Amino acid sequence: MSLHRKTFLIVSLTLTALLVILYFSAQTIIIQNFEEVERQITRRNVQRVAKTLQEEVENLNRLAYDWAAWDDTYQFVHDHNPEYVASNLVDQTFTGSRLNFLLILDENLSLVAGKAYDLIDSTEIPLDESLLQTLLVRNPVLLDHSNPQSSVAGFVSNNNTPLMVASRPIITSEDEGPIRGTLMLGRVLTEPVIDRFSAETLTTLSIYPVDDVLIPDDFRQAKQALLNDRTAIFVHPLYGVALGGYILLEDIQGNPSLILRVDSLRTIYQQTRQAIRYFLWSLAVVIVTFLIAIYVILEKFVLSRLLNLTQQVTQIGTRQDLSARIHMSGGDELQALADSINRMLADLESADHALRSSEEKYKTLMETLPDIVYRVDCDHRITFINRAVEQLGFSPAQLIGQPITTLIHPQDASKLVTDSPAQSEEASRHVEIRLLTEEASRETHVDALESNQKYGEVITRPLYDPNISPGNKPQPIGTIGIIRDITERKRIEERLRLRNFVYESINEAVIISDLNGVTVDLNPATERLYGWSRAEMLNRTCEFLNPPDQAADITRRIFEGLNREGVWEGELPVITKSGQHRITYSVISRLYDNNGNWIGNIGLNRDVTEQKQAQEALKSFAAELEKKVAERTRELNEALKKEKELSQLKTRFVSLASHEFRTPLTAISAANDVLEEYADQMDAAKKTKYFNRIRKSVNYITRLLEQVLLVGRAEAGKLEFKPKRIDLAELGESLVHEFQLTQGKNHHLHYEATGELSQAYVDENLMHHIIANLLSNAIKYSESGTSIYLTLAREGEDVRLSVTDEGIGIPEADQEKLFESFYRGENVGTISGTGLGLTIIQQGVELHQGTITLTSKEHEGTTFTIRFPYQPTENHATNGDNR
């Protein structure tokens, strides 16, 4: 396809696409916008008509008020005067107010007067029974007037006929009651009435009841939408030139009653579509004109000149005359293109001259290259070799005509020289060989050649006869090759091989990473240590080798050490692929390139798990040994402490014995002396008095010894415990009564028992001893005339026993030691006692699975509280029974 046709086609398609885009844009944007404007106008019209109808309802309501709040109407309902009907319910009343009916009902809702009127025929008509049913039965709200200001007005549907109704209570002209009845006015919304509203609102109106089964389809569609949203205005196209706006009108009970439609002509829409059609036709004419103009201009100012340019370039290519130039005027891009072509031709001309001069430079280059460049004929004899061969001790002249094998170790000659024609004609060859120096070429023994060995890398390409005609197989005329001395590289490679052997053979895991910590190399020991293969570890950071909760912190510490000191070393926790937890001792340092730049890191990692385990075992053994030493020391200290306590206990017992036993023994001795000296002078009563004193002292000593023995049995775990079911309240009462008559006769003893206590499971003897001892102590350490309180109470599954006195109290420093054997408070003074009673009480309480506590304040009194189970555990009860 020619350039002319391509240009015409492109411009035509572009302008056609523009026309299509404008058409659819106008349809999409402009038409839609104007449609939305029409919808908004329709909604405003609907709102305006609905407002007009509402105002008409209000006018009807005011008219009903004028009739209902009138003394004549008020009196008529009372006396039913026919003059009222004759003078007021006349035809002019209905025609003047455009009423279709008027009803007056008394307070009993009986119809007093009523009239219906046909405004179209201007004749009175009888009241329809269905109308009365609709007004008085189906819409009772019209009759519900609770105060003089009450009113009901709105729409009602009667047999699918819409009505406008107003109802007011009948009151006096001064708006006072009592209410004597109801007055209703109504207007039937017939077609003439609706036409009158259409004329007043300058619209076209239609009204249908909601429950009319014969409503048109558009009303039916609007009904579905409006019932979902009663406050909405539904807009729907009626036909091509009109829009319908629909609104729901509720009746006087607030239920959907009527559907009102307001029609609006689509003048804007029609005019817009016509304007768009005119615009698009005009635009099409302009586009066609513009297309022709553009094509003529392109033909004259672009296409013809471009064709001229093409012809001149073709002529220069045909003649292959690089000195020719293109002539083009116009001062535009085409001239700039011609100038660029001319500059390119000038550059090509210069390049041609440079190519000729480069051949001389090539010869110079061959002589200065560090690599040996040679050319051989088909017999592998040297026809050209540069001066770089002098590094082997040869001169170029010395080698011309010699076989190339003169420079090659005899064992490597076959790598470069072969008798096979197929191999000789290969496109290129790249081999490594051992080279011979001029001195080594004179040696005949192979071992002597190794002492001064040099290595070379050879690249060869075949040379072909350029005069062979196209289509014939090219004929080789020789080979050109380059030999590069790689002796130093081979030595470096050998050192690297040895270093790599060490790297692969050491037992420590070596990991090399870049600056981001990503692994770039590792040795086999790393795979053995961690269990991961080389492929699995490369291109990953080493964080996955550490415990997840420590990995980030370990990485941070390592990089902080590398940034600060260039090296980091320490122990690292690692997890192998099999899930084993190991410990490595790692040394990580920076890696530098030849310019001293930090390029990565190398880490040396040794598994020290067994070493750490041995250290931990040693630490554990040392800790265990230290623990045993500490335990033995503690045992010795406790034994020493018990020995000390035993010594103190013995001391207190000796002191007790010397004090407590001395008094009764002295009394016995004195009574005995008196009896021995004066028995014959005493009567029987006096003798009995001294004998009773002796007996009392003996009993005291006996009880004291029994307490000591009882403490000994308790501490040895041999205290007798035989629980049974007893009435605990009765036991407490008997003890209080006993003490009130004996020791407590100078005190006021109070007793209180609450809750069920008749089946307490206790050792009666021990419980008797506990309560008696606490009462005895309370009496002993309280002044005469004070009160003593014994309380027994059932609290859930436990029993609480408390004894409270108003005595001397117990110092706070003595309270902790009060339950120790032979211990007595510092403030007891000369009050006798053994210090064993509370010890025995505590042992007895513990046998009952109970606890004992005390609260005391000096000079105010003391309370001992005991808590024990009402029914002890089965094992404890059984154990107790077997003692």
Explain what the structure shows.
The chain starts with a helix and ends with a helix. α21 packs antiparallel against α23. The protein folds into 6 domains: 29-143 and 154-268, PAS domain (Beta-Lactamase, 2-Layer Sandwich), CATH 3.30.450.20; 321-368; 370-492, PAS domain (Beta-Lactamase), CATH 3.30.450; 506-605, PAS domain (Beta-Lactamase, 2-Layer Sandwich); 608-712, Signal transduction histidine kinase, dimerisation/phosphotransfer (DHp) domain (Helix Hairpins); 719-881, Heat Shock Protein 90. With 883 residues, the chain is an alpha+beta fold. The strands form 6 sheets. It has a 6-stranded antiparallel β-sheet with strand order 3-2-1-6-5-4. The chain has 24 helices and 27 strands. Helix content is 48%, strand content 22%.
The CATH C-level name of the largest domain is Alpha Beta
Q: CATH-wise, what's the superfamily of the largest domain? A: PAS domain
Largest beta-sheet details: 6 strands, antiparallel
Q: Can you tell me the overall shape?
A: flat
Query: Portion of residues in helices?
Result: 40-55%
Q: Write down the Rg.
A: 65 Å
Q: β content, as a range?
A: 15-25%
Extract low-pLDDT stretches. 877-883
Oligomeric status of the shown chains?
single chain
Q: Please identify, by name, the CATH architecture of the largest domain.
A: 2-Layer Sandwich
- The tally of domains stands at 6
- Which topology of the largest domain does CATH recognise? Beta-Lactamase
Question: Ends: how far apart?
Answer: 127 Å
Number of strands: 27
Helix-strand layout with pairing:
Layout: H1 3-68, H2 71-79, H3 82-88, H4 91-97, E1 101-106, E2 111-118, E3 123-125, H5 129-138, E4 152-158, E5 161-169, E6 181-188, H6 191-201, E7 204-209, H7 217-228, E8 234-239, E9 242-250, E10 256-265, H8 267-319, H9 333-368, E11 372-376, E12 382-385, H10 396-399, H11 413-416, H12 421-424, E13 429-435, H13 446-449, E14 454-464, E15 476-485, H14 487-505, E16 509-514, E17 519-522, H15 524-530, H16 534-537, H17 551-565, E18 567-575, E19 581-592, E20 598-607, H18 609-678, H19 684-715, E21 724-726, H20 728-741, E22 748-754, E23 760-762, H21 764-780, E24 787-795, E25 798-804, H22 812-815, H23 837-847, E26 851-857, E27 861-869, H24 874-881
Parallel strand pairs: 22-24
Antiparallel strand pairs: 1-2, 1-6, 2-3, 4-5, 5-6, 7-10, 8-9, 9-10, 11-12, 11-15, 13-14, 14-15, 16-17, 16-20, 18-19, 19-20, 21-23, 24-25, 25-27, 26-27
